[in-house]
């Protein structure tokens, strides 16, 4: 195809705001439809420029700009590929995958190499049989992997104040938040930022719907709900919003908000409002329906969403969604575009749930309602990620007068950034058997030796706080290090590991190692020069035995570590070293790599650790020693 005709063809497609059929293009260019297909194939020979579908042809950047952005990120590409493999027991055709992701076969094959390193910890392996890619391994590990890749999509921005404010620009979100916090504090109720933002979004959506004459109406008996701190606070917040926005919370809206607040603040969450007690407040049909929907998600995607807090919230949402659909009270969701574009895997889960709900309830669900479901699912995964960073605690304390309440409130107020109280019991036999517990905080002696514990006074003393803080710090470090340990195989590579390579000085080592990284496709040809420039500013040698040369920027093609271990010291500037670890960091991997890098540096910072690593016989021995040292650090 001549260049001028190629440019004319692309320019014509660029001028169109819709799909162009082969027939219309053939008519315009006075050629056959077969020639049009030939043009497209030739233009797409090295890179997909034109997207093909049953609708016709469209320039890729216009047809699927977002897909380009998503697949530009190595992490997102891996997530998409792995998700497809998990869901397809028969495997997927590599050429179909290439077309879907707008990637070359070689790019996908390169991604598969990285994917196999990532999934080693799940005892899974991607095999390439002819043109088919297959995920080999046990189903339970596939389920764990699916849960992991879905959770990777969420971030601290998923439910941030900024996200809420951007979506509802006509409301002063920060001001409303401060007012709600003030009311909760008057009733001695404490919530962390994540839960606060969840409550805030629920209330702003509620206010917005009421203002647009879309109130929820269902059978609600406020007398069912006990009068306690939560109900008093919910009524006070509703009154504040009614006065501020000149609206009216009917009994249904108020009832739902009391239940929501009760599932999120201090004690009722632990003692009363659970999936089993929800029958007292919500029609049994909706509770069973929600259970069935979540079972369907588990069957299809291997994702277990069994969290009590999520179940309560999601049941209320499903019931209200059905009411809105049946009464044609559908409203615009300002988060639709953001969630659909930014979180495609989570949105796909929401589409599946919506489809199942349509089948079970014989209703039709529009896109805006699908986005609300996606929001709830995304919030669950964000919450799950947040909990992974926290220490999960069970409180054991007799319920004399207000002893339990006072103890829980004090702990939540002081440690809300570092611990999560998942259950409050009067004795250890009440602890849920399946529940993961990191720490018991108890006012009574306990015999359980499997889980760490701190014995405290019913009314906490300074000494108690010191004991709790020490144990929390220790457990958090163990969590962080065990997580980092999983990535050892991802960033270390046998092809980049060497023993006893003796050169004259640091410049020669930098040239040698950067060339090796270049040959293996990790860095550009100029990478060595950027490391030399960094080294001239300040030596990367530390601990009198280790050098960690790296570039000023995170501009590598791939993230990895090139490692040389030496039996005898060599000169590195003014220092002498026996371990040289050259780091290449890709900008897309920085969030995942940073904690890992910090863990490696912590290991290499101690002389006794480096001394042990120096004695490694080969790569396998080095990895064994490194893994052991990470465990000790934890």
UniProtKB/TrEMBL annotation:
<feature type="domain" description="PTS EIIB type-2">
    <location>
        <begin position="389"/>
        <end position="480"/>
    </location>
</feature>
<keyword id="KW-0805">Transcription regulation</keyword>
<keyword id="KW-0010">Activator</keyword>
<feature type="domain" description="PRD">
    <location>
        <begin position="167"/>
        <end position="271"/>
    </location>
</feature>
<dbReference type="InterPro" id="IPR036390">
    <property type="entry name" value="WH_DNA-bd_sf"/>
</dbReference>
<dbReference type="InterPro" id="IPR050661">
    <property type="entry name" value="BglG_antiterminators"/>
</dbReference>
<keyword id="KW-0677">Repeat</keyword>
<feature type="domain" description="PRD">
    <location>
        <begin position="281"/>
        <end position="387"/>
    </location>
</feature>
<dbReference type="Pfam" id="PF05043">
    <property type="entry name" value="Mga"/>
</dbReference>
<dbReference type="InterPro" id="IPR016152">
    <property type="entry name" value="PTrfase/Anion_transptr"/>
</dbReference>
<dbReference type="InterPro" id="IPR036634">
    <property type="entry name" value="PRD_sf"/>
</dbReference>
<protein>
    <submittedName>
        <fullName>Lichenan operon transcriptional antiterminator</fullName>
    </submittedName>
</protein>
<dbReference type="InterPro" id="IPR011608">
    <property type="entry name" value="PRD"/>
</dbReference>
<dbReference type="InterPro" id="IPR007737">
    <property type="entry name" value="Mga_HTH"/>
</dbReference>
<dbReference type="InterPro" id="IPR013011">
    <property type="entry name" value="PTS_EIIB_2"/>
</dbReference>
<feature type="domain" description="PTS EIIA type-2">
    <location>
        <begin position="490"/>
        <end position="629"/>
    </location>
</feature>
<dbReference type="InterPro" id="IPR013196">
    <property type="entry name" value="HTH_11"/>
</dbReference>
<dbReference type="Pfam" id="PF00359">
    <property type="entry name" value="PTS_EIIA_2"/>
</dbReference>
<dbReference type="Pfam" id="PF08279">
    <property type="entry name" value="HTH_11"/>
</dbReference>
<dbReference type="InterPro" id="IPR002178">
    <property type="entry name" value="PTS_EIIA_type-2_dom"/>
</dbReference>
<dbReference type="InterPro" id="IPR036388">
    <property type="entry name" value="WH-like_DNA-bd_sf"/>
</dbReference>
<keyword id="KW-0804">Transcription</keyword>
<dbReference type="Pfam" id="PF00874">
    <property type="entry name" value="PRD"/>
</dbReference>
């Amino acid at each position: 195809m001549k260049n001028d005709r190629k440019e004319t063809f692309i320019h014509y497609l660029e001028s169109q705001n819709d799909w162009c059929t082969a027939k219309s293009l053939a008519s315009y260019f006075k050629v056959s439809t077969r020639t049009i297909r030939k043009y497209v194939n030739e233009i797409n020979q090295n890179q997909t420029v034109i997207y093909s579908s049953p609708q016709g042809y469209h320039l890729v950047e216009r047809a699927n700009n977002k897909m380009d952005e998503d697949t530009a990120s190595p992490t997102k590409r891996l997530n998409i590929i792995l998700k497809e493999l998990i869901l397809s027991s028969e495997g997927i055709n590599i050429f179909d995958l290439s077309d879907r992701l707008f990637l070359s076969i070689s790019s996908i094959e390169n991604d598969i190499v990285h994917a196999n390193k990532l999934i080693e910890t799940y005892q899974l392996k991607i095999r390439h049989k002819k043109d088919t890619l297959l995920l080999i391994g046990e189903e339970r590990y596939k389920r764990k992997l699916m849960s992991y890749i879905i959770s990777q999509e969420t971030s601290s921005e998923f439910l941030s104040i900024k996200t809420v404010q951007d979506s509802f620009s006509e409301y002063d979100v920060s001001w409303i938040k401060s007012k709600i916090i003030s009311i909760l504090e008057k009733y001695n109720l404490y919530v962390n930022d994540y839960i606060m933002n969840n409550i805030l979004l629920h209330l702003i959506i509620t206010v917005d719907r009421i203002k647009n004459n879309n109130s929820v109406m269902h059978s609600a008996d406020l007398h069912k709900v006990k009068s306690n701190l939560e109900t008093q606070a919910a009524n006070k917040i509703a009154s504040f919003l009614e006065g501020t926005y000149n609206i009216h919370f009917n009994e249904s809206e108020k009832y739902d908000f009391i239940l929501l607040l009760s599932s999120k603040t201090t004690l009722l969450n632990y003692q009363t409002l659970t999936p089993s007690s929800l029958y007292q407040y919500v029609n049994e049909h909706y509770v069973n329906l929600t259970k069935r929907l979540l079972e369907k998600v588990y069957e299809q995607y291997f994702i277990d969403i069994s969290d009590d807090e999520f179940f309560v919230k999601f049941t209320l949402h499903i019931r209200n969604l059905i009411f809105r659909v049946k009464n044609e009270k559908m409203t615009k969701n300002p988060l639709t575009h953001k969630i659909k574009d930014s979180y495609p895997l989570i949105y796909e889960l929401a589409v599946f749930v919506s489809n199942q709900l349509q089948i079970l309830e014989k209703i039709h669900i529009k896109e805006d309602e699908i986005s609300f479901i996606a929001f709830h699912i995304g919030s669950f995964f964000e919450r799950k990620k947040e909990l992974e960073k926290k220490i999960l605690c069970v409180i054991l304390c007799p319920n004399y007068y207000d002893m339990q309440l006072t103890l829980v409130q004090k702990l939540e107020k002081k440690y809300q950034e570092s611990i999560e109280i998942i259950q409050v019991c009067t004795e250890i036999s009440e602890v849920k058997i399946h529940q993961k517990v990191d720490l018991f905080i108890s006012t009574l002696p306990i015999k359980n030796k499997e889980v760490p514990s701190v014995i405290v006074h019913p009314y906490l003393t300074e000494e108690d706080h010191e004991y709790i803080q020490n144990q929390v710090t220790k457990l958090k470090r163990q969590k962080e290090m065990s997580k980092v340990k999983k990535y050892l195989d991802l960033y270390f590579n046998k092809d980049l590991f060497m023993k006893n390579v003796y050169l004259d000085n640091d410049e020669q080592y930098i040239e040698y190692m950067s060339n090796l990284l270049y040959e293996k496709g990790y860095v550009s040809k100029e990478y060595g020069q950027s490391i030399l420039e960094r080294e001239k500013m300040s030596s990367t040698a530390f601990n009198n035995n280790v050098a960690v040369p790296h570039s000023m920027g995170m501009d590598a093609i791939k993230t990895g570590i090139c490692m040389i271990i030496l039996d005898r010291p060599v000169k590195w500037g003014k220092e002498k070293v026996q371990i040289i670890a050259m780091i290449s960091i890709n900008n897309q991997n920085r969030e995942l790599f940073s904690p890992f890098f910090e863990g490696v540096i912590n290991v290499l910072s101690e002389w006794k650790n480096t001394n042990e690593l120096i004695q490694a016989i080969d790569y396998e021995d080095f990895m064994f020693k490194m893994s052991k040292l990470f465990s000790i650090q934890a």
